[in-house]
Specification:
42% helix, 13 strands, three-stranded antiparallel sheet, three-stranded mixed sheet, flat, alpha+beta, 14 helices
Amino acid sequence: MDGLKQLTDNLRARLGELSFNQKALLGVVAVAGVISVAVFSLWLQKEDNAVLYSNLTPEDAAAALEELARQDVPTELRNGGGTILVPESMVARLRIELAGKGVVANGPVGFEIFDGKQYGLTEFLQNVNFKRALEGELTKTIEGFPAIQSARVHLVLPQPSIFKKNEQGATASVVLRLGRGGRLNESQISGIQALVAGSVEDLAVENVTVIDQTGKVLSAAVADEETGRGETQLGLRKEVEEYLTDKAGSMLDKVLGPGRSIVRVDATLNFEKLTREREIYDPATTVVRSEVRNEENDPSTGATSENSTTNYEINRTVEHIVGQTGNIAALSVSVFVDGHYEPAADGKGEPTYKPLTEDEIGQLRRVVQTAVGLNPVRGDQIEIVNMQFRQMEEPTGASPLTDWMGVVTEYGGKVLLVVLLAVVALSLRRTLGRLVAGGAPAGAVAATAAGRAGGPGRGGPPAAAEDQEHFDGIPELNDQVMGDIRDYAADNPDRVAEVIQSWIREIDLSGNTRETVGN
């Protein structure tokens, strides 16, 4: 209790010694510290917003905002009002509540349309609901693809006919809205067609049309047998060339060193579909196909006659030959290799380039030819050229760039607020520490040093005694005192520099020096 009272008395005494400007500055710093702590606490307690619904129509957005306003839920709109953001902890609960009230139809309706009790529906309405449910389920599945933002599926399911020739197959159309920069390759489009065709009865793959949001028919290239496979063929050729190049290049890098060889492979693939049928007859091999025997009796003479007919079949072999597609028709390989570099004779100059010998080039040719599977009978070619590579200066290693902009955007405000709070706290601590701590004011030290102008050489006490004397005040600054100070400064520049440094160290936050004792 006594310690607290003493601390309070010291604080009150120190506050009494401050000038009006210093008290005002201290009050401003204290208020700023309180405000900073409050703002920082509110910042930390503020919850981030998350997306409740996106890509909403104006009608659905208006209905959702009306219901959220009724529940006093803070909302934020983005993307022209099509995206609604709410506090992250409330997203799951609000989605369930709004879906239960039917405020927002979150996605297409699937087979859950049959969950409720339906009485009095005609057969036509049942068929319509089934068609809607099937379209909705297909839409949900297609929208799960990464590049697809939204989708619509339209099905045409004709009524079955009792006459087979009058039956018509089902057809389907799929409208896709691709994301920014999204693109579907040929295999993905074929997969969507196969998905829809496999989910609808009597629907052929070629009867499924896929278009994008711009009206471009994406399934046309897939359906075109003549030109639609060009992208696939080019991709297969690229894969073969990269595979063979990597095989030969990695092997040369191990032997010659990294960057000492360049390998390029050009592959010609055969995509022709050939179907041949061949019949082979073997006259030397015959088999009995049929045999007929007739036996006749003559009643008048009692004679018996017999004849037989035998049919033979020549051995015949029928072969159906289907040519393989995508096989390699021809290969062309080009290889650049660097030579040897011998060190200079003195060990200080640049290395001397020495080309490879014919034997070394021949060895490399045979090795590369075996690695990529060259077939001279097929007409494959290989060319190896030994040439000095241009020596490029190796770039200095640079660390990979980091997405600092995203980090600064997300955490910059909080970090800046923490830094400001730390600066204010340190300022308060330093100011309060000076108010509470006792001891001689800063100006007393400076005045004591300045009052020693009558030191050595002026009849004053020795230097050892000057460090222990007590200074009671600043004398009147007349012409004699000012002259003594100038003479002392000229004779003791180092001592004067120490005095000035002590003044600089004791500068207050307000920019004013403290009052010396004796004023």
